[in-house]
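FAQ

Q: What does a record look like?
A: Structure on top, sequence underneath. For example:
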């Protein structure tokens, strides 16, 4: 029994040693996830490589918030990514999946804010949207004459006479995108909940009704990044696409935004909370890789440094809405102390 126990201990030590060696065999930070956060992380990675000669420039990939967090939660070691970019907060079931796979130290880093905008081509009609308009454009069923019927709307002005006489064609993010969740939570569901028929439903039935989407071709889910959505607008003049504010800011010469509830999306209206469709952006750092993958903690600190993402910074000019200074200081301390979720 003693020999078997000793053998088991040696085997366990061998496994741990092999794991550590495997981790330390990689010297480049690996990042994947949100297409919204991607351009910001790419800028940070390049600047990090320029400013920290002792570390290699991080490699940044996309894949959507859900895809990045799925990779992040696969385990610990050189064959797993170090950081997941996300345009939404990590979900409880994702935290559970991480911990089941040995990813127990998850450091949440809020990097700033972004708005979600509804945009069309510069030569298309002007839209003044309300959340209820968005819901009625994409819904599988709508209430009419006391009954729920298959969505009959084919043109925006059928929903509301104030809207353009234009065919409904919505290009929205696929379910792998964090933008999709915010789009539903901040536009579709609030619009749906203004309807008297929905107010009379129980919570579960209302949620199911509000998120059910028409399948007649009027709504197209875009699995790729915002460039694919932009291509859809370029190909179809009537299309209205859902983008992050930062992407719109970088493409003002090709697209224009709709107002939402009478408010134009911009940095000021998002910081003030006046524009209703906005969200925080995150990176999630694997605590077990700090001290193993060179530069990981330094990269996270650099990402939210005042010079990199504060007011007047490189990332602000790229479209990121900066954190307030007290919030930035709190998050910097969380990185320093490796505070885990």
């Amino acid at each position: 029994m003693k020999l078997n126990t000793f053998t088991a201990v040696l085997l366990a030590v061998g496994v741990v040693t092999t794991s550590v060696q495997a981790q330390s065999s990689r010297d480049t930070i690996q990042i994947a996830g949100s297409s919204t956060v991607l351009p910001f992380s790419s800028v940070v990675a390049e600047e990090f490589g320029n400013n920290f000669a002792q570390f290699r420039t991080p490699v940044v990939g996309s894949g959507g918030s859900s895809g990045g967090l799925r990779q992040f939660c696969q385990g610990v070691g050189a064959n797993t990514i170090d950081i997941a970019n996300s345009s939404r907060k990590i979900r409880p079931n994702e935290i559970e999946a991480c911990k089941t796979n040995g990813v127990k130290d998850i450091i949440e880093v809020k990097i700033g804010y972004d708005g979600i905008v509804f945009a069309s081509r510069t030569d298309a009609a002007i839209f003044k949207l309300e959340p209820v308009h968005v819901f009625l454009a994409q819904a599988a069923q709508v209430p009419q004459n006391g009954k729920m019927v298959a969505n009959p709307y084919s043109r925006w002005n059928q929903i509301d006479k104030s809207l353009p006489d234009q065919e409904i064609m919505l290009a929205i993010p696929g379910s792998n995108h964090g933008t999709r969740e915010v789009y539903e939570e901040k536009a579709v569901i609030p619009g749906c909940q203004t309807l008297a028929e929905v107010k009379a439903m129980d919570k579960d039935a209302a949620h199911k009704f509000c998120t059910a989407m028409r399948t007649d071709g009027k709504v197209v889910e875009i699995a790729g990044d915002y460039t694919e959505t932009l291509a859809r607008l370029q190909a179809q003049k009537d299309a209205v696409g859902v983008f992050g504010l930062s992407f719109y800011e970088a493409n003002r010469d090709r697209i224009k935004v709709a107002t939402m509830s009478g408010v134009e999306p911009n940095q000021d209206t998002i910081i003030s909370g006046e524009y209703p469709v906005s969200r925080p952006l995150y990176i999630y750092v694997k605590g077990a890789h700090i001290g193993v993958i060179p530069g990981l903690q330094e990269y996270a600190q650099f990402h939210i440094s005042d010079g990199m993402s504060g007011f007047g910074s490189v990332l602000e000019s790229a479209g990121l809405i900066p954190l307030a200074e007290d919030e930035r200081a709190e998050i910097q301390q969380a990185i320093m102390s490796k505070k885990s979720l």
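Q: Is there anything notable about this one?
A: The CA atoms of residues 269 and 275 lie 5 Å apart.
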